[in-house]
Amino acid sequence: MEIEKNIGVADMTTMTEIDETGINHNLSLRYCSDIIYTYTGSILIAVNPYKSINIYNKEYVHKYHGRKMGYSDPHVFALAEAAYKSIVDDQINQSCVISGESGAGKTETTKFILQYLCAITSNVSSWVQQQILEANTILESFGNAKTIRNDNSSRFGKFMQVCFDDSNCIKGCIIQDYLLEQSRITFQSEGERNYHVMYQLVAQGLKNMEMAQALNLRPPEFYKYLNTSDTLAIDVNLESAKFDALTMAFTVLQIPQSIIDGVFKVLSSILWLGNIDFMDIDGEGCDFSNSDQEIISNISKLLGLKPNDLKKVLLMRQINVRGNITEIPLKMQEAIENRHAMAKALYSRTFTWLVIKINSCTNPGKDGAQFLGVLDIFGFENFVHNSFEQLCINYTNEKLHKFFNHYVFALEQSIYKQEDIIYTHVEFTDNSQCLELIEKPPRCVFKLLTEQCHMPKGSDSAYLNNMHAEFEFHPTYIKGSDRRHWETEFGIRHYAGSVIYAVDGFVDKNRDVQQDVLFDYMSRSEDLFVKDLSKYQDPQFLNVIQNYSTYPRGSTKTKCTVSDNFRHQLQSLIDVLQSTKPWYVRCIKPNSLKLENNYNHALVLDQLKYLGILDIIRIRREGFPVHLSITDFILKYKCLMQNKSYSCTRNYVAHILENLNVPSSEWQIGKSKVFLRSIAYEPLEEKRKNLIFNNAIIIQKHWKRFYCFKSFLLIKMAALKIQHAYRGWKLRIRFIRMRRSAIVIQSRLRGVFAREVAAALRELRRVDEEMKRRDQIFDKVSEVHSDAIEDCERMVQNEINKLANMSENAHLSVTKILVDNNASEKLSTELSNLQDTVDLDNIFAFLSEVTENTPPNPLIEEINNKMNHLVQDLDDEELWKYMRGELNAERELQIIQYIIGLGIEREDIRDEIFVQCIRQSTNNPNVEWTDRIWLLMCLLIVAFQPSKLLFRYYVSFLKNNLKILEGKLRQYAQWCFDNCKSTKVSTRVYPPSSVEVAAMRRLGTIVCRFFFLDARTKAIDVHPTDTAGDAVQKLADKLNLTTIEGWAIYQSRPDGEEHIKSFDYLYDIISAWEIKQTSSNTLKRISNGSTSGENRFVFKKRLFKSTHELSQDPVEVSMLYSQAVYSVVKSDEFPVSEKVALQLAGLQAQVSLGDPSNQPKPEYYSDINNFLPCRISKTREQQFWIPILAQAHRQYGSSRNELTAKVLYLSCVMQYPLYGTTMYNVIYKGYWSFVNNIILGVNCDGIMFIQPEDKFIIYQFKYVDIESIMLDPSDSFITISLTRNTPQTVQQFRDGSSLIDSQKCFVFETLQKDEIGSLIISYCPSLSNWILNITDCSKKNKGTTHEDRSRLYQNVVISRRQLIDMNIVRKPQELGGFLRNTLRRLSKHRIEKLRTEQRDNVQDHGETYKGFSHSFWAFSKQQIPFCLSSLSDQDESVMVQIFDSILTFSGLGTSGETIKRAEDEHIRIVQSIMDKCMKKESLLNELYLQLIKQTTDHPDANSRINLKNWALLSVACSVILPSIKSIRKYLIAHLKRCASDYMSEEGKYARFAENCFFRTQGTRRRQWTPSCEEILCTTNRRPCYSKFYFMDGQYYSIEFQPSSTANDVMEIIKKKIGLQDNSKGYSIYEVIGNTERSLLSEEKVCDVMAKWEKYRSTSQQGTQYQQSNALSSRQQNYIFLFKKHLFCDNYINLDDTVEKELLYHQNLHSLRSERYPITEMEAIMLTALQGQLELGDCRDILNDYRAVASHCLPPRFVPNIPHEAVAMHHQSLRGMLPAEAKKAFLNLIQSWPLHRATIFDVMQSFTSNWPRMLWLAVDQKGIHLLEHRSRNILCTHDYESIISFSPNLNSLMIFTGTEKKQSKVILSTSQAFQITTLIREYSEISKTKNTKIK
Predict the structure, then answer these.
(1) Over 90: is that where the pLDDT of 764 sits?
(2) Bigger pLDDT: 1443 or 757?
(3) Is there a cis peptide before residue 1793, judged by omega within 30 degrees of 0?
(4) Would you say 1442 and 1477 are in contact if contact means Cβ atoms under 8 Å apart?
(5) What is the pLDDT of residue 1893?
(6) What is the torsional sign of CA 1390, 1392, 1395, 1399?
(7) How distant, in Å, are the alpha carbons of 156, 385, 567, 1148 from that of 510?
(8) CB within 8 Å of 1684: residues ≥ 6 apart
(9) What is the pLDDT of residue 1595?
(10) pLDDT value of residue 665
(11) N- to C-terminal Cα distance for the chain?
(12) Contacts of 1144 (CB under 8 A, 6+ apart)
């Protein structure tokens, strides 16, 4: 016998001499060397070491991963790798069958296999790995127990199917359990224990008193179920640690804490059940003892049951006879058995629930393509007392032994026999007779047992007698150990030895009586888990029963017994194993004492015998384990031959093997297969793989060379094409420029020459004609002219009459429709006749083959549209009532304002209003009616003008009426005629006011009074068409003002003063005043030309171009003087000292009172506020100021004339830098050392910031330094951005503070933002592009030549042809049968003529390519019958509907008629279109083709319909782009072509869409349909905007593009608030309710807004069904929050004022939300510092600091803040400046080492040593776990020690330590993803920092 020295043989099939002693000795040697694994071919033998051996770490995982079995030392990892490799290579399900006695190590082996599989599939989610591994922890606690043979014996069987997906990664795990040993709950043999979880629970109760009180736990000695045998005392610390591991496993499986508590309550109630002591009552019943009442109460509370219900279950049993329930008292023994049954049922159902819950967590769906099953089932058992459970366990081992023998011996040898292979027959133990005895029907052990269970009085003794009689002579049956026990036991000769079974309890255990009454009460329990547990009251496999049961339904025999269920389960397991490739692990117990380093040779030898190891070795050695068919063998290995043949014969196989020098003893050839031993198969396989590998390298080499060469050629050709195209383009550009220049030069020269020649010729001809005809033909010319004029007037009159008749006929037809619905046929005939008279030919133009491009008849469409608008938009009945005078004055005014307002609002119905008025005023017999209509026309003509189409007719109408009307009506007509030629371009904004209507009734105008700043007024006559500029000119003329430059009119209202723009109509201002007064129900009528007392016009200087030069105009000097006095005295706009104020007051008195020599009376000076600013006058009493003013008058004003005094006054005021500056009160929305309420000054030089108190200039800059000025569209914000290259300066101020001019962006809040913007434009027109949002101004001057347009059009044509050549677009179908749709027959000649005209029209538009005409690509107002691209039928119908939606959105119905839609309906249409198309690429591509079609060659490029289509295309380009490159190319060509038109609205939209395209290109794909705000902004060609909040409660409205990412917006915010460019660590947070999440840098902000809108709509729909629930109807807040995200040392710059303020407010918020642990003393100090900031220095009066404390402390501190202590500390801070107070505040917070950490509230349940509620702090150093609201750090992990982390919806799992020793932390939190994002970012920063250091 050859055995290697010391360590033995690794594979025992290689031993030369095989006998039991040698095998045993070999295992002993390896065991003593701590080598516990040995091969027997592919079967692994594992000897339990009963100690820990370090051979299962990651180092060993890497050692065996990817290596073949047998190439390394034997190991369970090698077997697991072989099974996994077989799944990958062969795609066959695998199974690992682990067998052995109890205590042999089967459970540990199972865990090692699962550990290895989880480790090698490292790309699988950590949660799935851990859930699979932790499932074992739970099942061990609940299903394992200590026995005399094994400290961790599995008392149930389990088959774990580890499922793999198509990529061979673990997808989940399914666990099937078998036969839990229920009797162990109530009884344990001597030396054994109950299930582990019971001891773990009570041990935890000893350490955790809170838990013990909640679960009513007692010490283990108290419970009878834990003391049925003499067991050793438990180790409390060890069991408590195992309990922590159990709770950790529950957490990993994401079982809620309430459910976990419910599980433990059930376990506690089971323990309490065992302590119930019954009292016998006369032998016929029983009752509870005195001590049982407390137990009943405890169990009731634990299970959530009523005590009386529980008592009924314990003391009574129910009998149901035909629906009648009878309660029968239980005898004492029956009550005890019933109590045991209740305990077993509760535990069994809890175990079943756990298994189902584990399966739902580890494998929620049927995802596994293949699986690897691991069978860990009870080993063979032979105790002193064996019962029903041992019979089932040993029966299982018999079945598995049979399966093993069949796989290893019988199947193998049968194949040898069939193939005529020469082999030595191996005898093996056949246990078929034993299995037949147990399970073979009709008479077997299990069948007889089932019969007894179905009998009413079945008993154990009857069952035993039947077996003795039936099987007395069976070779494997034993009647008993001896004759004395034949009546109580029987035996079976198993393959592992004879076992004697005690028959006591067999029948009852097999029946498994259900506790139906108990579970019925449990279904009404108050505990959710107990209530859920009642659903599992019948866990039997009903489907199995239905398949196997032959009894009729309804009989008592249909109840399946435990043995039947188990037998069916076991058979299904065998079926599963037979469908897999099995791998075997034979576990061996070295000794029965569970001692390490103790090898019992006799015990091991017994196990080797019944396991058949010797036979296994022999057949593995002498057999041929590798079987290949002859064909497969030749195909596989003929590649190793040099001379190959195509024959598939046995001789050729032998030839291959002989040539490859394979020993003939290692292979045989059968009838159809080749048999190889492993020693021959492995070298062959190695040679084949090496050959394939070498050939693959050669193939790869040649392929790579070919690919690289081809790529080089392609690159070369592409480079040549690019060079060719570039050179050609460059030369073309040069040629075009030269030709352009030449043409310009030629045109100029020719123009000069032509003009000179033409001028000379004209002059000669004029002189000649004048001389010849002066006298001869003057009279003749006069006569001819007179005749011509008469003929022209006659023709005009005829034309007017025709138009009037046509209008009358049309109106009568419409009126008949409205009056009588039955007149439709007549109306149709009349309209048809009318159309025939207009143009009969074009009516039937649609009969030609090409119908889409037929030009419409403009006159017919004009009449139809006007008539439709007449019916829809005007209330004809109201107009008639107004005309007839049936309304009161107020209603008449409303009708006039309504009609004119409608015309102002809608340009398309203006002509209709004029036409109706013309019609009603023509031949009207009633003079009063005619007067009202002419009044309306007079008001209309000054509000808006008729269109060009109607203008000539309107003028002719007026001329005609001027001839025939008289009196007031003729004056009305003259008014209309005079005003219809108005050159004003813009229309009125508001309908006429009541004052204007009243003035128009008398054919007059409004006399407006204009106020001056010296209290003087001027009244001038204002015409309805006069603008503010006209009024300024009139005032200047009346005042003799020489220049009006800089002068303007302001409207003074109660809410402030506002400049009236020069192009605004004054009548509109008056109307606006009236509307505002009417809306506030305080209408004050304006009469006699005077406005309301609250509203007035003010005339003053607005623009001061030169602030230091006096005007030479005395009138202007006087007015500037008045304005200066107003600014100094009333507005106090200049920092005038008292001395200067008295000097100015003296000059002012000289102007107003005259020379002081006239002895002015003292009362002249009594009104002090008319001479001095209030700031100065309030320093003294009035009586003191009068003599002072008189003295100043004499001193500074004496002997000066009025003009001189005014000039001196102005000269003095002009010395102030603020003179000529218009000031606005604004609020600074930023962070600096000044107050936020400041004054923004605007003058001719630039902009300045002014302090309100002393008018000190904080900061000023010129217009050239301004980069942009933006007026916020949604809020009252104005943003001023400076250029980046502005030099930095430092300004020192009187208080010692300084301001560094590094801030480049300032944001102010003011309601006067538009006024400020308008003034800035007036001073600096170059900034108007920003303020007016004009983005194309710089490109308007660029000329586009005909060559450019041709080139752009050719690009479009090329793109279209590319789409056609690539078969992306579908060829249009021929639409025949047009005659079927005609309304009347036409002659053949007429039809041909129409077709010819249509063909000519088509040829004008474009060319046809491969059957695709121009109409395929161009705009269509009709529904398309098919899609433009090739789509499936389902997608085709969707896109046809979408095209209909596009028509609807643009304002076209399916019939092409114009319709109206509300704005919200438009948004819904856009969202519906985008939602459908974003889900599928093909639909998106089709959408772009449709949108390009609808925006191509529209008849009216600037029409509303076309602009709507362009708006929709812009939205699409800003959201998502087409996936096909050729469509993108076509889109770009289309946009560039249309964008070349810089004047039209279409061109503006095209440029906007082009910009959107390039911004969207290359960005992250959108996930959500665009929101309403985004659609509105994009369709109006404006950026999107949203509010972004800060920690101090402020917010900014930020504008950004739809494609802007969070990083882009963050840069905009940083620029706005003045953060330095290099500031880092900030982020934008998405706040939804109480949760927040930092946006990823590449996440699109518009996508987040769209998601919010979707959430809002979903929540609103949900609340409609839950109105009764107040919480459900509460709306969630959705906001963006800007704050510091990462607090690294190099990311914080406290020298930056803005960052310092941001951190201060963020720390304040953290304090208020209890994210800083503070003591009471710190709370006092913080409150005092905050009080110093808010209240200033402490006063003598004691303040109530609760309001201040609420700003900086958690709510729980505020009510109990000690005011005296705070006041004392506040007193010590007297004199501290705000900046110093903030610094002290931050320093106090920084005293906590973790002040820069981000704190999260988390919960843990994995250890009882820590509190359940914790703080998780994440900072730049690592993660820290702290006690909640405490500074006590429990543990810290730096980022280097964090191995991995995995978030889940409500949990976070973190692995720390090293690869060899890992620890796991499970935390419950709703912010798991936010925490992992923070950890990941800090980890990356830490790695980068460490890399730089290295």
Answers:
(1) no
(2) 1443
(3) no
(4) yes
(5) 67
(6) negative
(7) 16, 18, 12, 120
(8) 1625, 1626, 1627, 1702, 1703, 1706
(9) 85
(10) 74
(11) 59
(12) 1128, 1136, 1209, 1212, 1213
pLDDT score for 1047? 92
Edge-to-edge, what's the strand order for the sheet holding 37-40?
37-40, 43-47, 581-588, 94-100, 370-376, 157-164, 170-178
Beta bridge partners of residue 162, listed in sequence order: 173, 372
- What is the number of alpha carbons within 13 Å of residue 344 lying toward its C-beta? 20
Task: Look up the pTM and report it.
Answer: 0.69
**What integer best gives the mean pLDDT of the chain?**
81
pLDDT tens for each residue of 489-534: 999 998 888 999 999 889 888 887 667 788 888 888 888 888 888 8
Q: Which position has the token pair 């007889």?
A: 448
What is the mean pLDDT of the segment spanning 1233-1247? 86
Half-sphere exposure (CA, 13 Å, Cβ side) for 1010? 22
Q: Can you give the pLDDT at residue 104? A: 87
Instruction: Provide the token pair at 1309.
Output: 């809040």
Mean pLDDT across the stretch 1076-1100?
62
User: What pLDDT does residue 791 have?
Assistant: 62
The pLDDT-based confidence of 861 (bands split at 50, 70, 90) is very low
Reported as half-sphere exposure (CB side, CA atoms, 13 A), residue 828 has a value of: 6
Helices (H), 1040-1167: 1066-1079, 1114-1125, 1138-1153
Q: State yes or no: pLDDT of 1456 exceeds 70.
A: no
1835 with 1829: CB under 8 angstroms? Answer: no
Helices (H) and strands (E) in the chain, counts: 66, 45
Alpha carbon separation from 1466 to 703, 1382, 1441, 1473, 1478 (Å, rounded): 57, 35, 15, 11, 18
Tokens of 405: 């023998």
- For residue 833, pLDDT over 60 is answered with no
User: For residue 669, which phi and psi values (nearest 5 degrees)?
Assistant: -110, 120
Per DSSP bridges, beta strands 626-629 and 1017-1022 are unpaired
Strand order in the sheet with 1595-1600: 1595-1600, 1584-1589, 1678-1684, 1626-1632, 1635-1638
Count of other CB atoms within 10 angstroms of residue 818: 11
Overall residue count recorded for the chain in this entry: 1894
Instruction: Report the alpha-carbon distance of residue 1048 to residue 1028 in Å, rounded.
Output: 8
Task: Report d(CA 69, CA 82) in Å as an integer.
Answer: 6
Tokens of 21: 């002693």
pLDDT digits (tens, 9 = 90+) for 157-198: 889 888 888 878 888 888 988 888 888 898 888 888 999 999
Angle at 1496 between CA 1492 and CA 1497, to 5 degrees: 175
Instruction: Please write the tens of the pLDDT for every residue from 1334-1376.
Output: 444 444 444 567 778 888 999 999 999 999 999 999 888 654 4
Q: Using only C-alpha atoms, what is the Rg of the chain? A: 50
Cα(517)–Cα(121) distance, integer angstroms = 48
Query: Nearest Cα to 1147, choosing from 1156, 1159, 1158, 1138?
Result: 1156
Please give the Cα distance from 1703 to 443 (Å, whole number): 86
Give 146-178 as a 3 state SS string. Answer: CCCCCCCEECCEEEEEEEECCCCCEEEEEEEEE
pLDDT digits (tens, 9 = 90+) for 622-667: 667 677 787 888 888 878 877 766 666 777 788 878 788 788 777 8
Are 106 and 376 within 8 A, CB to CB?
A: yes
Of 206-220, 506-520, 1254-1268, 1409-1423, least confident by mean pLDDT is 506-520
CA distances from 143 to 735, 837, 1614 (A): 92, 100, 61
Torsion of CA 1878, 1881, 1885, 1886, to 10 degrees: 60
Q: What is the dihedral of CA 1537, 1539, 1540, 1542, to 10 degrees?
A: 160
Query: CA 1213 to CA 431: how far, in whole Å?
Result: 122
Q: What is the 3-state secondary structure (H, E, C) of 1259-1295?
A: EEEEHHHEEEEEECCCCCEEEEEECCCCCCCEEECCC
DSSP codes, 1814-1858: EEEEE-SSEEEEEETTS--EEEEEETTTEEEEEE-SSEEEEEEE-
